[in-house]
Design brief:
Distance between the termini: 39 Å
Radius of gyration: 20 Å
Shape: globular
Strand content: 15-25%
Helix content: 25-40%
Number of strands: 8
Order of helices and strands: HHEEHHHHEEEEEEH
Number of domains: 1
Low-confidence stretches: 1-21
Strand order of the largest sheet: 1-2-3-6
Amino acid sequence: MIRWRVWLFLGTMAWSAGLTACGPEKAPPGPFELVEEAAWRAVNRSHTGADGIFVQAQLRTFAYEIARAYARAAADSLSQEQLEYRLRQLIHSYVDGTYPLSDGTDINNVFYQYLVYVNPSFEPNNPLHRQVFDNWRAELIRRLLDRVYDPKLPILRHTYDERWGVTLFSRLVFIVYLKNERGAAPPPIADIGARTFLVDEQGHRYSPSGNVGPYLYETDRPAVDRLEGEAVYRVVFPNRKADRKTPIVTPESHLVALEIEGLGSVPVRRLEWELPLVYPELPARRLRSELEEAGAGR
C-alpha cells in the first residue's frame, strides 16, 4: 500500500521549504525537485473559511507521482533502472489494490480481472499458473511504462491512457489536509470521508468508494475524531458513473471539483481543478543508467 501520509508530508515540506528561514542553510533544490514543486502546485487546491479552518486537497495524478519519483531518485543518486523499479512498485500498489466489487469488474485489481477475463480456471497456489499470471501482469506494467516513455510525448502529461493520467488505475485519488488555524471549537471529522464528494462539470456528485466505510483502507481515515490541530485523510473515487461504464472524467472534461460538507461553520467547501492540468517539463527524460554510473566511478 502506498505510504501516502508520508508522501503528503514530504510534498508539503517541499512546498513550505521556502517559507522557513530558521535552521542551517540548505542547498538550493535541484532541477528535478523544482519540477516536482511545480507539479505539486498544479495538483493542489486550498480553501480557508471564515472560521479559520484551512483545507488543502491534492489530486494525486500519475504525472505528479512520476515527477515525485524523479525528484526522489535524483536526490538519492539512483540510476534510471532503479527509478523504473520504483515506478513499477507504484503501479503495483494500484493494480494489486483491494477494491470493492461494486467498483466494477473491469477496473478491479488485475488478479480479479485475470480470473474473470483471462483464465477462470486460474489456481493461485499452482506455481505454473502463478508464473503465467505474474508474466501477464508484468507485461501490462511494461506496456504502461512504454507509454510513459513514448519519445513523441512529454513524460509529464495530462493523459497516458484510459486508466492512467488524472486517474490512477481508473481512480481519482485525493489526499486532504485539514488544519484548525485559529483554535476554534474543534469540529467532528471522524466521518469526514462520507461528507466528501467528487463533482463533475455537470454538477453531479459522487461518493467515495471504500472497504472501510468511505475509506479504501483503515489507514486512510483521519487519525483523530475532532479537528483540534491538523489531520489528513484520503478518499478514492472510481472513474465511473452509476452505470459502471461511463467515465466521470474524460480527456474532454474541463473541470472536476471536490466538495466537503459540514466542516466547521462553512456549509460546503469547494475546491476546483480546471482540466487539462499543465505540467512542467523534466530537465532530462532519463537518469544515468547503471552502466553509465559504473563508468563514472572508475
